[in-house]
Amino acid sequence: VQLQASGGGLAQAGGSLRLSCTSVGGSISGYAVAWFRRAPGKEREFLAAINWSSDFTAYEPSVRGRVTISRDNDKNEVYLQLNNLKPEDTAVYYCAAGIWQQPLSTGPGLYNYWGQGTLVTVSS
After folding, report:
1. What are the pLDDT digits (tens) for 12-42?
2. What number of CA atoms fall less than 13 Å from residue 96's CA on the CB side?
3. Cβ contacts of 107 within 8 Å, gap of 6 or more
């Protein structure tokens, strides 16, 4: 399974973006999927995760309320809605899929498949 993240780009502070994650070579509908990001000069950071059925979600507390994760298994896609963007949200955003689903993992180690990342740049 290869993941593909898309939807990044240049946005203004206060704006919104919706990132998408899909897969080739297999479906991610049965996997937990998470979003991480890596800002310039910083460590990779967990943002949100969702289990296969959308019954459970997990969020990094610092972004809760501005970020929403969702999925559409019929379309084989997982989304990350980013609202009220801030310059510090500038980063490469990655989606990742893994089998472990309960509890949802906030660390990268239990996610077996990763996308190439999509760059989000937020201007002030």
Report:
1. 999 999 999 999 999 999 999 999 999 999 9
2. 26
3. 46
